[in-house]
Amino acid sequence: MRAVKRVLALGALTAPLVIGCAGLASADDFDAHFDKSQFIANESGAGFANTGSFVDENGVEHHAFWIWADDNGVSGSFLDSGAHF
To answer: pTM for the full model?
Structure first.
């Protein structure tokens, strides 16, 4: 079960890059991007999450992060990967 979750998570992280790279072969001046954000604020706390990918003539990049604040403090995570030419 853990392996299935890892495969799904990896697919969710790499799919935007694969989709963005699909149009590179025939593009002279290209730019492809994907961005998704979510925000919540209620009596339990407040949080923000974002996932995004982009492809342009200089390279590819993917990022994902989240941050949460409540009575116990602030926590979060950040992931960034990419290749630039």
So the answer is: 0.59
Domain extent for 16 = 2-84
Q: What is the DSSP letter of 30?
A: -
Compute CA distances 63 → 16, 21, 31, 42, whole Å: 11, 16, 17, 26
Residue 39: pLDDT band (50, 70, 90) is very high
* Structural domains in the chain (count): 1
In the chain, the percentage of residues whose pLDDT exceeds 90 is 55
Where on the phi/psi map is residue 59: left (φ > 0), alpha (ψ -120 to 50), or beta?
left
